[in-house]
């Protein structure tokens, strides 16, 4: 990561600054998506678990200190293996001697305990614990951050480590991550330099570093998906878990493609900004002077990259749903203006059908797509107008209380199948939550003949 990017991130969000500093100073970093039990203990005193579950692969990765057998008074009792080590929590200003413990009587069950409650109490579902191991004179010290899944710093975490949608836990070596990124950049950097030396950096930007439209990017992701699966179309009725596939398309395949396109685009724009369009032989002093002179423009360029990531995500999910509806032969209207002046993403099969006097008019429905919800779900109430409304998302971080609020106004949630019982999410047990596959089978397929 460039120093300019780090500077902008620290100005924008203190937690992002802490994360970027950890990435620069730690020799190894553990990233763990928190289960509900990993954070509930911080505000629910009836919970038995009082810490974070550690997967066996992470426990045995060499990241934590070596566990030793605890002396027990009872002869023949099952071994308890444990280790104590110093942890620092800069977000809440605390230091602890934390405890990792493996209860062999419970198989591989291992927990990290003696943690500050305040670091976990207000986190949304599917948030993260990030621990960086740092070498000190007296041994290892572990700096710890909690990254809220609803915060802007989550995007930085995901980008730093290339976390995919189904990521749960892992240990990374920042030096290796940086090296892999640099290898990907080097060949392209050579092309950029050659184009600039020829005085063709503008043409190069338009040809080799142009940012595709959101529609073209979605099509590129769909082509990759179909090629990998051996498909000719993305028909939800022929897919085992279409909701998971939508999540893969939007949050994994397209996101990876977008990152590649964006890195190329902003690398070229940075060269044009600092070096200009006309080739010359700069001295080190020239380069330093131009970097200083264009500092504000560089900051703006880096911030625009983050804004572009957010806007792309909103369109991405909608594009993939549209293709899935079309390939499934499902009739729909898109972005129809309602009397409330709202524009729901999709009306199935049409507004005229839903608002007609037909006996089966209530089989029609509104499908609103939001990649991330936060408070935006409240907007859909104005779209309803007494019509059945389904809200589809791939967002993991919706609190159970919010899901209940949606149910109270008649909103049903449509989510990826894998999230229905995911231990990191709070969707389980809510009657107004269905998987995308069931949505297609139970609420669309029985009515297709009439809709068509």
Automatic annotation (TrEMBL):
Pfam families per UniProt: EcoRII-C
UniProt keyword Nuclease present: yes
Entry keywords, A to Z: Endonuclease, Hydrolase, Nuclease
Gene3D superfamilies, per the entry: 3.40.91.80, DNA-binding pseudobarrel domain (2.40.330.10)
Residue ranges occupied by any Restriction endonuclease type II EcoRII C-terminal domain in the UniProt entry: 300-425
Signal peptide as annotated in the record: none
Gene Ontology MF annotations: DNA binding; type II site-specific deoxyribonuclease activity
Transcription in keyword set: no
InterPro entries in the cross-refs: DNA-bd_pseudobarrel_sf, EcoRII_C_sf, Restrct_endonuc-II-like, Restrct_endonuc_II_EcoRII_C
GO biological process: one example: DNA restriction-modification system
Protein name: Type II restriction endonuclease
Organism per entry: Brytella acorum
